[in-house]
Design brief:
The complex is a heterodimer of chains A (about 300) and B (about 550). Helices cover about 75% and strands about 0% of the residues of chain A. Chain A has about 300 residues and is an all-alpha fold. A two-stranded antiparallel ribbon of chain A has the order 1-2. In chain A, α5 packs across α7, α8 packs antiparallel against α9 and α9 runs antiparallel to α12. Helices cover about 30% and strands about 20% of the residues of chain B. Chain B contains 17 helices and 22 strands. Chain B is globular. Classes of the chains: A mainly alpha (about 300), B alpha+beta (about 550). At the A-B interface, β1, β2, α2, α6 and α10 of A face β10, α7, α14 and β17 of B.
Chain lengths: ~300, ~550
């Protein structure tokens, strides 16, 4: 097991290097640089030259490639071009914890509510409960998160004035409710559907029939015998959504005014803020890979047949 | 009850209702004169990219302007309000400018604002190591350009000098009357030398910042909230306002957040109404009263590549110009809140005169095109209209395509580009051909004709490749002209040539859509870059 983890962690290195290389060249191949114009005003050629010098953009490409890599390996992701006086490290330290908190909370809600609902639908297959829940799930999956967030803001913020229309003052505040729900809805619906279909498969398995034959109550059969195995596909899908949600959703963050990383990354791309783009992309890559590793390890706990050597 | 009594009672009721209804309708929910106990203004802003006046070149200047002040300020009436300076003296040759500073002016930590602070700030702004894009506003000063570009290493070669503690003297490379409109801009506000030297890059963070305006910064939680409070060390009349809470919106979608918070009474002032909501606001009896459309010194226009056929033919450009229905364009783009214009430059800029506009309508457009050799649009070469994907430009391009098709019988190909890609493309047109482009408009940085005519066509920043000798001679002569009346006359002549030749087509003047709660009084707008002037704001009881 330990060897497996070490092997996976070591495998991160070439992957990250590949991502670094692709992003580095893709950014520079994109038309338009960081300082073509500011607002609607032309940037003076002298000023542009000074900026290029200050941020070493006049250096040969290979030198820029190596220099940034070296400083990134030392933990310095460089200065932001757009936010003068702030570094990428500071910006990530400001934004990432917010996206992380909100994302984790959203996944807790999604799994905590989605799994029981999915299981319930499976046990009551083809009843009105099943049909009702799955109808709601389809709506949840097919409604984009920014629509959900906008509707919630207009109804609860503007008309009912129960929650502020936007902003952030910590996870345990009224402000967090709308982004939390908007972010959780889609994974919740998806988790519920996966939980249902995998439970349907499992409750028809032989060992579940055995459990029933032993005279166990239905609840004990589902909770002790079926649930664990039924969770395997759910964990997979949860991992995918976790990586997605934790790295921040641009739409939800923009609409609800949450200062998170997802929104910041998109803004930086349109501003051609190279160090921010690079810093956040690398961070997101690490998160996705770590989440995948955790998902793989979870299988071993859920299914005794799975072993990592 | 008798029938008569019933009628009487009925009438009495009706009279009472008739009296009461207008009373309730008129009587506002807030006092018209009494000040609220809590003088706090709440509004939304976009995260400033810097609060350092030497660096702030974008929207950040709006917020810098609240906590710092410069030598003076020019509001829309064109008069100078003296702030950091008491007087300005320009030598006869127009080269030496001497500012006597206001000795009462203090930084928020109580230290005096001196000429040395100004000298330090101005030299810092053009320091190539700082690489600030506000440096361009200093280029009239002798020695500034070589220092900026690194050709001269010694800052003492730049002619900015503190003669004594309260006298600042600068020398121009050549007469630059436009500097009067520039010296009061945020880009030339002073920074506190003692604080900048102590904290370096981080001096403008809330914990370190020291400012000299009527307000000063209390806290700044990046991307969340900035709080300003009254500067108790301010030299002049202190504002009634005690506090300003800037909620920082998720950038990218400022407008929607701003407007929704306003509707939910979370803010007192919104600087924007989403296009989709304008219709509803205009129809709503309450909201429509809170909306004002404030004219900006900014216009939207089209640019031709006049160096190549068919655009080198003036008649073709005129035909394209006259075929546009500006009223309709403004209706579609802004529900009529933008002000249609047939000329390029904005009101307030010397040379501007709506009478210079090309006269005529669609019929004249057809005639001109026929005279140019394309009757009914026949034989007109294929061409492209290039636009950036910002501020309604895509819709504008489609509207123009339709109008030119209907009136001139010509087919336009539209090319819409991502904003940064467009900027790069446009910069590349200096020596490259194109057909027609539109961009996100032009905002006066200062109210002087050089900011339009000279930058656009003499410096060639529009890349329109328009080389009209008569026009260029006029604007070249006008820029350094010290006689004010003569200068205006030259620019007026130039404007006549410009509008007749139509190398550009003016479409509309931008306006700011501002929403103000009825209890917010004394908020002023400036047409230069849409500054909001908070110093006279009061909040009435509500």
């Amino acid at each position: 097991m330990r060897r497996y983890v070490v092997r996976r962690v070591v495998a991160l290195i070439p992957t990250l290097l590949l991502i670094y290389t692709i992003v580095f060249f893709l950014m520079r191949a994109t038309p338009g640089g960081p300082w073509d114009e500011t607002g609607s005003r032309p940037v003076f050629p002298e000023v542009r030259e000074n900026l290029m010098k200050k941020y070493h953009l006049n250096d040969p490409l290979w030198k820029q490639y190596v220099d940034y890599l070296v400083s990134a390996l030392h933990g310095d992701l460089g200065p932001s071009y757009r936010q003068r006086g702030r570094t990428v490290n500071e910006i990530i330290a400001d934004f990432f914890p917010i996206s992380l908190q909100l994302g984790l909370a959203a996944m807790v809600v999604a799994v905590g509510v989605g799994v029981p609902l999915g299981f319930l639908a499976a046990i009551r297959q083809d009843t009105w409960i099943d049909r009702g829940l799955m109808f709601l799930a389809v709506i949840g999956i097919s409604t984009p998160s920014f629509v959900v967030a906008t509707v919630l803001i207009v109804v609860f913020g503007v008309y009912l004035r129960l929650v502020p229309t936007s902003g952030w003052s910590g996870l345990f505040s009224r402000q967090a409710l709308i982004p939390l729900f908007a972010l959780a809805l889609w994974p919740l619906a998806a988790v519920a559907r996966y939980a249902r279909s995998s439970m349907l498969e499992v409750i028809r398995a032989d060992y579940v029939r055995t459990a029933r034959a032993k005279g166990l109550t239905e609840l004990a059969v589902v909770a002790q015998h079926a649930a664990r195995n039924a969770m395997i596909p759910v964990v997979t899908i949860t991992g995918v959504y976790l990586a997605f949600v934790v790295t921040g959703s641009f739409y939800v963050e923009s609409v609800t005014g949450v200062p998170g990383l997802g929104r910041y990354l998109v803004l930086s791309i349109s501003a051609r803020d190279y160090p921010i783009i690079m810093g956040t992309t690398l961070l997101l890559a690490v998160i996705v890979m770590v989440v995948n590793l955790i998902v793989d390890l979870t299988y071993a706990f859920l299914d005794p047949r799975i072993r990592y050597e | 009850m008798s029938r008569r009594m019933t009628i009487l009672a009925f009438v009495a009721c009706a009279v009472a209702v008739a009296l009461v209804i207008p009373m309730t309708a008129v009587s506002p929910a807030f006092s018209q004169t009494k000040l609220a106990k809590d003088q706090t203004l709440r509004m939304f802003i976009r995260e400033p990219t810097s609060m350092d006046p030497n660096l702030a070149g974008d929207h950040s200047i709006w917020y810098v302007d609240q906590i710092f002040e410069g030598l003076y300020k020019i509001l829309d009436d064109g008069k100078i309000i003296w702030l950091g300076a008491k007087s300005m003296d320009i030598s006869k040759d127009g080269l030496t400018w001497t500012f006597k500073l206001n000795a009462a002016a203090k930084w928020s930590d109580g230290k005096p604002v001196t000429a040395q602070d100004y000298e330090f700030s101005w030299k810092r702004a053009i320091d190539p190591k700082l690489a600030s894009d506000v440096a361009s506003f200093y280029s009239a000063i002798k020695g500034a350009d070589p220092y900026m570009s690194g050709k001269a290493k010694d800052p003492n070669t730049v002619a900015i000098k503190a003669v004594d503690n309260y006298t600042l003297q600068i020398t121009m490379a050549e007469p630059a009357p436009y500097f009067r409109s520039v010296a009061g801009l945020t880009y030339l506000y002073p920074v506190p030398k003692h604080v900048v030297e102590k904290f370096g890059d981080k001096w403008s963070e809330a914990a370190n910042i020291v400012s000299n305006g009527v307000l000063t910064m209390q806290s700044w939680k990046h991307d969340q909230e900035m709080v300003l409070v009254r500067n108790e060390n301010y030299w002049g009349k202190k504002p009634v306002l005690q506090k300003v809470i800037f909620r920082i919106a998720a950038a990218g979608d400022l407008c929607a957040s701003d407007f929704r918070a306003f509707e939910a009474n979370e803010t007192d002032f919104a600087m924007c109404v989403p296009t989709a909501d304008i219709e509803r606001v205009l129809r709503d009896p309450n909201l429509s009263k809170q909306l004002t459309s404030e004219l900006l010194s900014a216009s939207q226009f089209l640019v031709f590549d006049t160096a190549r056929a068919p655009w080198s033919n003036t008649q073709v450009r005129q035909a394209f110009n006259l075929a546009i229905d500006r009223e309709k364009v403004s209706q579609v783009i802004s529900r009529g809140l933008y002000k249609p214009t047939r000329v390029l430059v904005a009101p307030g800029i010397q040379g501007y005169d709506p009478k210079h506009a090309l006269q005529g309508g669609p019929a004249d457009a057809q005639r001109l095109l026929a005279e140019a050799g394309f009757p009914g649009g026949r034989g007109f070469p294929e061409f492209r209209l290039t636009a950036p994907d910002i501020r309604g430009n895509r819709i504008l391009a489609e509207l123009l395509q339709q109008m030119w098709k209907d009136t001139l019988g010509i087919t336009t190909r539209i090319e819409v580009m991502e904003p940064k890609a467009f900027s790069a493309w446009r910069s590349g047109r200096k020596n490259q051909p194109f057909d027609i482009y539109t961009r996100g408009g032009w905002w006066s940085d200062y109210e002087d004709p050089t900011n339009w005519y000279n930058i656009f066509f003499e410096d060639g920043w529009l890349n329109s490749h328009w080389q009209n000798e008569q026009f260029l001679q006029l604007v070249r002569a006008a820029a350094p002209e010290l006689n004010r009346a003569k200068r205006i006359a030259l620019y007026e002549q130039a404007d006549i040539v410009l509008e007749r030749e139509s190398p550009t087509i003016g479409l509309w003047y931008f306006t700011d859509y501002w929403m103000r709660k009825p209890w917010l009084k004394g908020l002023q707008h400036t047409r230069i870059l849409g500054f909001f002037w908070l110093r006279d704001v009061t909040i009435l009881e509500h």
